[in-house]
Amino acid sequence: MNRAAGVLALATAASLSLSCSESSPSGPGATQNSLVFTRADRSEISFSSDAFLYVWCGPWEEGLVVTPSVQVLFGGPGPGDPRWHLRAVVADVTIGQPLAFPNGFVFDLPKDVDLFVADLSDDPANELSSQDARSSGSITFQKLQCGSGGEIQFSIDAVIGSEFHDGPSVNVTGTFRAAIDPPSR
Question: Are 122 and 81 in contact (CB under 8 A)?
């Protein structure tokens, strides 16, 4: 399964999980998203006004990697719509200290932060990851609190490299803030 399909499966599972519990996605009043994703040709990746947003704390990868992390999943709603997925190891985040890209790690020993971008609406489609060696820049968390009333806030100024050998990179700049949903039970 490719990474974009995995993110889509995660979005579907998160949607089902959230719809079957008392928790719900962060409301629009609690969210500030000024992130801009700019392709190499200077066009911007456009996200749907109906895009979903899920923000939660839990394992890095449910059932596989238990490392406590915070995750943000934004995009869609259709399977071919652009989306991004940020995962950060809670213990590796120090408020106010930048985490640099690229950030490579073994899949079951995550560290720091990972940003994956699926630019599926462009022709050709592109998948990008902060683990790619062509990535650079950094992300800085201003807030990260899991649990009841938790919140995440970060700023980013980075280049995210394509997972495809000849794929172009994407610049990501801006800030993001949202409430963290309680974990589903």
Answer: no
Total structural domains within the chain: 1
| Tokens at 142, concatenated | 């201003």
Q: For a pLDDT cut of 70, what percent of the chain falls above it?
A: 82
**Residue with tokens 């990474």, as numbered in its chain:** 3
Strands 136-145, 83-89: pairing is unpaired
Residues 88-123 as b or e (16 or more Cβ within 10 Å = b): bbeeebeeeeebebbbeeeeeebebbbbbbbbbebe
185 assigned to some structural domain: no
Give the whole-angstrom CA distance, residue 103 versus residue 115.
Answer: 9
pTM (predicted TM-score): 0.83
- Look at residue 146 and tell me if it is in a domain: yes
Q: Give the separation between CA 68 and CA 94, rounded to whole angstroms.
A: 15
pLDDT in tens, 41-95: 999 999 999 999 999 999 999 999 999 999 999 999 998 899 999 999 999 999 9
